[in-house]
Hints:
The complex is a heterodimer of chains A (355) and B (257).
Chain A: H1 3-21, H2 24-49, H3 57-74, H4 86-91, H5 106-130, H6 135-155, H7 157-160, E1 166-167, E2 171-172, E3 175-176, H8 180-206, H9 208-218, H10 220-224, H11 230-256, E4 258-259, H12 266-279, H13 284-304, H14 309-323, H15 327-331, H16 337-354
Antiparallel strand pairs in A: 1-4, 2-3
Helix pairs in contact in A: 1-8, 2-8, 2-11, 2-12, 2-13, 3-5, 3-11, 5-11, 8-11, 9-11, 12-13, 12-14, 13-14
Chain B: E1 9-18, E2 21-31, E3 36-40, H1 47-55, E4 62-67, E5 70-71, H2 77-83, E6 85-88, H3 100-108, H4 116-119, H5 124-136, H6 152-165, E7 170-174, H7 182-195, E8 200-204, H8 208-214, E9 217-222, E10 225-231, H9 232-237, H10 239-246
Parallel strand pairs in B: 3-8, 3-9, 6-7, 7-8
Antiparallel strand pairs in B: 1-2, 1-4, 4-5, 9-10
Helix pairs in contact in B: 3-5, 3-6, 5-6, 7-8
Amino acid sequence: MQPKYVIGVIVLLSGTAAPFIISTYELSLLGRFLALSILAMGIMLTWGEAGILSLGQGVFFGLGGYCLALHLKLEGLNLANGDMPDFMVWSGVSKLPAFWYPFASPIFSLVCVVIVPGTFAAVFSWLVFRRRVGGVYFALITQALALAFSTLLISQQAYTGGFNGLTDYSTMFGESITTTGAAKVIYWITFVLVVGAYFFLRWLLASRYGMMLRATRDGENRVRFLGYDPVPYKVIAFSIAAMLAGVGGALFTLHAGVVSPALVGVVPSIEMVVWVAVGGRNILWGAIAGTLLVNFAKDLISSALPSLWLYGLGTIFIISVSFLPAGIAGIFRAGSSEDRIVRRFLTRRKLSSAE
Amino acid sequence: MNAIPAPILLMENISVDFDGFFALTNITLSLTPGDLRIVIGPNGAGKSTLCDTIIGRVRPTAGKITFKDKLITDLPEQEIVRLGICRKFQTPGVLPTLTVFENLLVSAQKDRSWWRSFTRSSRVTEILRAEEIMMQIGLQERRDVFAADLAHGEKQWLEIGMVVATDADLLLLDEPTAGMGPQDTQRTAKLILSLLGRHAVLVIDHDMSFVEALNGYVTVLHQGQILKEGSVAEIRADPEVSAVYLGRSDDDHIIET
């Protein structure tokens, strides 16, 4: 058996057995970070494979998270009786806003977790890419989007929970989600979805679509002048990344028991890109590894010396950009032709974006 | 086969105005199927603009372009390409992180709609076509090499191959020998001559040894206008053409005497 299959089996087995091996606290961290790694794989797809840097993935993460949180706040309430989520009562809202009602259905909410970020990303990116806006300008637009989204959430306190976000959930599908047993189940769901997303993206990148996506990244004009319209390829990649971010956001909300504007704004959106830069943006497992590594480091450093974390993050980022342009995953194939190509591609991108 | 075939490409009174600077003025040019046309001219004569205009990258301010009796002046770029015009860029426009074979395969795919890219893999005929062109451009040994790792001349051939792989009826080759040594230049000329008949080819260059090796009908552009048209020998002997080139010392490499 090839070594990579052996490693794969070990990862799958230890991932499955994790709830019986590590402490409840560690499990909750691992579950959260795995949820984030689903989003990170999406960044690998858009940034690494499609060459589209988005500094607004927090928006899609938040859309997914809030779609589920709306349901979790309604679960167990008697809407016909005029019951309302606690924060609305405190804000003096007299009637549940109309857009909240459909989220009383768990199925509707779960569908929205995927569909809302996906549709929003598709429409948004189509409008932008159709105008042939890309590169740094696209990154700036997405950054502005993240700022606008978090501002909107904070300003609409009565409908969104404002700065505090939505928290204090109890049940889903009638089952408690706060017990240790539930934590294990949520962890396994997360793990299965990480594995599923991994194999889905592997298939996607190996397909003819994946080849066309790389071709578009390499030479959008060349592809256009071979008779292809490059826009749909980019829109699809961006939308898939948004859907993955939404799934990650919903799972994170379940694990953390809270979703708030602090998780979806500009700074978290940039942090998400750092995870992938550290892990390796052209290798799928690199995105997962980077997310786990940076986040566990964050947990360690910020619990020991809270004020130090931002410096730590900055240092990690600078080291990875200066010495490991292909990320940690790049070390494992250093010297291979893929590695050379990635390096060359990255330098070329740097030069062209400096123009 | 006695009658003169209808032109595949017809440019009529084309002018391109870049905010007051006329890159092209009143260009009329026609090309018959399977034929070769060489466009030469000093730097800034408007050669690349001519290509850009045909392919829709630059829109003419006046005049019209018909291709296979269809007006293409206002079509989107990918529509023009799908009608059967494909262009090679001046700096090699290969796709660096794809292999030689993948570059050709992307070009050879007949179905260019995005939704089909999920549902099926490449057709056998397309794969065979890509392999065939790889032989033709002499890169069969380099099949699985990333395009970024090719030598400069090989990149030029690969891009010619990509343009050929689209099976376009008209190929626009913008300086296919740029940066090549004499040996590679001759090899490129042979390659281009082997394409004629199946494709009409419009070549832009200013390497005179290359133009002579191609030995086709030449159009000389100067300051956005057609200065002269004729065979290579006629153009060589023309005093006006010599004046245009020789009068500009920085371009004296173009026609060596």
